[in-house]
Amino acid sequence: MTGVFSQKNPGNIMLLFMLGIFIKLPAFFHDKGFIVKTSDGAFYTGMVTFFKGASHGSPFFFAAIAFGLNLLIAFILNNFINTERLMNRSNFLTGMAYMLITSFLPSFNLLSANLVASVLLLTAFTLFYKSYNNKNNIFNAALLIGLASLFFLPALFFIAWAFLALAILRPFRFSEWMVLLLGLTTPYYFYAAHLFLTDQAYIPAYFFQLSFLSSQVNYSQWHAVALFFLLAPLLAGIYYMQANSAKMLFHVRKGWHLFTWYLVISMAIALFDIEKTSENMVLTLVPVAAFHGYGYLNAELKLYPKIAFWLTIIFIAACQLYSNLWH
């Protein structure tokens, strides 16, 4: 299967869709389909309220939206890596890796503020990377980060990533840093104006409900094995990326550095507002999938991608059939 996805074949788009349906099938029969936390942003809670009314609270409807968002992330990420030539040849391994690792836990397949924010942050990432030859992308990327934080407040930590990305990609220009700051604050300006015009001129409660390391998740051996299948290919991908960094174009190397910082920031965010599920890990899955895909393509041991793929499939099937996580 990895041999098929290692090629740039248009048919892989349909194959990726079918793979996602196959390994995520139990998510469509979950009894709720979405996650709402007390600390979720007003934009997300409003969206869930609207969808509940439109779908009469159908769990399948929410699961289908979550699947669509995960598939969208897989395509955006895979297309970005191929278009910007971050690997030595075009392939669908990154998209495959993302669909696999998002099938480890049910909370990765439910609609959540984290999942919506992940779509916005990944789009912001692609725009930032392209800003090296188009400075007009700076405002749009910053705007998306600000908007993501209105869905999931800890996404504000990506403000630090945004300034870091601008420093890495472009020479310092004060005007561009001001444009970045303007883009980050614009969603809050309009949100504050809306609250004022509707006589709700107060700071919403979720701004004060941010918690750190407040996990109530009952971790099991299944979580431990899932963590292994996340970390082992991640470390392999980072190793091969470092081994090949001297052969990379300068700008490609910058792209992988940005992915590394994306991973660091998203891991820090995962420690906030954990509550009773593991959905905060969703933000980390984008850079993790990128490194997984790189490791699969550049592995010196050619059996490694095949073994990793089928062991992951076996784990997903065993977890869905025999663990209590999916029931």
Structure description:
With 327 residues, the protein is an all-alpha fold. The chain has one domain (2-322). The protein has helices spanning 2-5, 11-23, 42-55, 59-83, 93-101, 113-130, 137-151, 158-169, 174-197, 221-244, 250-269, 285-298, 303-322. α11 crosses α12. It is globular. The two termini are 29 Å apart. The mean pLDDT is 86.
Counting DSSP E segments of at least 2 residues, the number of strands comes to: 0
Tally of contiguous helical segments: 13
Q: What is the gyration radius calculated from CA atoms?
A: 20 Å
**What would you call the shape?**
globular
C-alpha end-to-end distance: 29 Å
Poorly predicted segments = none
Assign a percent range to the helix content: 55-70%
Sheet with the most strands, sense and barrel status: none
Strand share of the residues? under 5%
Order of helices and strands: HHHHHHHHHHHHH
What is the total number of structural domains?
Answer: 1
Average pLDDT rating: 86
Structural class: mainly alpha
Task: Describe the protein's topology.
Elements: H1 2-5, H2 11-23, H3 42-55, H4 59-83, H5 93-101, H6 113-130, H7 137-151, H8 158-169, H9 174-197, H10 221-244, H11 250-269, H12 285-298, H13 303-322
Helix pairs in contact: 2-5, 4-5, 4-6, 5-12, 6-7, 7-8, 7-9, 8-11, 10-12, 10-13, 11-12
